[in-house]
Amino acid sequence: MIPSRPTIWVLGDQLNLSIASLEGRRPGDCRVLMVESASKLASKRWHVQRLHVVVSAMSHFAAELEAAGFDVDYRRAPTLAAGLRAHCADHDVGEVIAMEPMSWDGRALLEQLDVRVVPNNQFLCHYDDFASCAQGRKTLRLEDFYRWQRVRLDVLMDAGEPVGGRWNFDDQNREPPPRDGRSWPAITHFPLDDIDDAVLQRLPDGWGATPQGVWPVTRAQALTRLAEFVDAGLAPFGAHEDAMLSAEWKLAHSGLSSSLNLGLLHPAEVISAAVAAHARGHAPINSVEGFVRQVMGWREYVWGVYWLWMPDYRDQNAFGATRAVPPAFTGEAETDMACVKGVVAHVRDHGYAHHIERLMVLGNLALTAGVDPQAMTQWMWASFVDGAEWVMVPNVVGMALFADGGSMATKPYASGGAYINRMSDFCKPCRFDPKKRTGPDACPFTTLYWDFMDRNRDVLHKNHRMARQLGGIDRLKDLDDTRARAQEVLGLLDRGEL
Question: Which of 77, 98, 192, 214 could serve as 82's disulfide partner, Cβ 3.0–4.6 Å?
Fold first, then answer.
């Protein structure tokens, strides 16, 4: 009797032959199952490019596996569980094996379905190792974790010391946008093929611009994106990584996040390529270290925090915020706020905004306006091509909205219009004045910043890093007018009239 073959269940963000569940497997010794869940596709108001990049990448990977000789069962089913049950009904399945999912609920589902789960190898630090690193610490900040990663993985280290004599070069990576009209690195647009066309025809309606081939949907495309970033984008990346320009949606940012999050690239190869560029003198240390910090530091830190604190973490709401996501964010209303209009345009056109646009424009306004952190998490998850629960819960709940009360960030990232004015070109043509907090032409960011500090002072006074800002509130001679203007701003924001 021919023994039953195991089924390797490949999830939609595990699209690489090197994933733990496929390692060592050869055509003929297993079946590969992939399930396209109709309920998942219908679960949110997804950006169409987010839907497309996931489903197209899944479909392309299935085709690549088949071309390599694997027996692939690609199913469109009402749910993931229904897809598995239908697969098992149609085939003689010995055992179902999957690599650990990226989400808490996904892991629980696989356990319920009696799937044998093998450890996830798509990160440099497994969440169990992160938990061990965090054990016994009152807090585990990014900087501590990042240095631990650098040392244990021997990345940008020289005889036990950081390359360049410093652990970070943040002071060189906070330049405002240059005013010299320079061109920024171009990226390849990948032509849509028959698989892409078929995917677009069957996807549910989403919002945002239709795909233009910006986001890789195959490993080959992702490797192209990596090569062109290292060649043209890495060197200028560092200095202006926090800058914002209305006409430049990515500046010198890599555009690799969706490929990493889908499994088309592994962080080790991305970091290795950047470090090698520095070693051959192609990119300065401030740019390379800044990029390594994003991939090996922040991305891995967010992954570890998610697993360490879930499932309760996603429900945190330290400020008791209840406001809906503003219509100005969702594209359901126009806005006169030039920074919000510009960033939302980037999201609409590309399903993307870089980290400072997310944190200091979208997140900052959501924080000071009192937007519900769970609603904001869901919107950003659905709107960005690199969105996922493990990405957005720590970034929104912990970093942007400080809804965890400081478990992750040392202080709220709240700011008035002055920061945006310094780090962008948004403010010059805007009808609002970033220096004003009262009156019809006052910048909503500035008004809401002071109102946020005022109405949350009982919570914030426990944070020693906020002492100077809190002390400034009582020196305001127009505090009552600021409070009144804030209520006007919030009403206009809610109604989509701002």
Answer: 77
Q: Quote the CA–CA distance of 417 and 337 in Å, as a whole number.
A: 11
If asked whether residues 87 and 137 sit together in one domain, one would say no
Residue of 448, 429, 427 whose CA lies nearest to 437: 448
Using CA atoms, how far residue 304 sits from 142, 290, 344, 345, in Å, is 11, 20, 29, 31
User: What does the angle CA 202 – CA 207 – CA 210 come to, to the nearest 5 degrees?
Assistant: 65
In-domain check, residue 207 = no
Which pLDDT belongs to residue 2?
A: 54
Q: How far is the CA of 43 from the CAs of 39, 47, 148, in angstroms?
A: 6, 12, 38
Bridge partners (DSSP) listed for residue 93: 5
Peptide bond into 434 cis (omega under 30): no
Extract the tokens encoding 340: 């919000």
Q: What is the model's pLDDT at position 1?
A: 41
Q: Which residue has the higher pLDDT, 268 or 473?
A: 268
Structure tokens at 64: 């690549």
Sheet containing strand 71-77, strands side by side: 71-77, 31-37, 5-9, 93-99, 116-118
Instruction: Give the domain range for residue 23.
Output: 5-118
How many structural domains compose the chain?
Answer: 3
**For residue 458, is it within any domain?**
yes
Residue type, 422: R
pLDDT in tens, 96-129: 999 999 999 999 999 999 999 999 999 999 999 9
Q: What is the pLDDT of residues 51-110, one digit of tens each?
A: 999 999 999 999 999 999 999 999 999 999 999 999 999 999 989 999 999 999 999 999
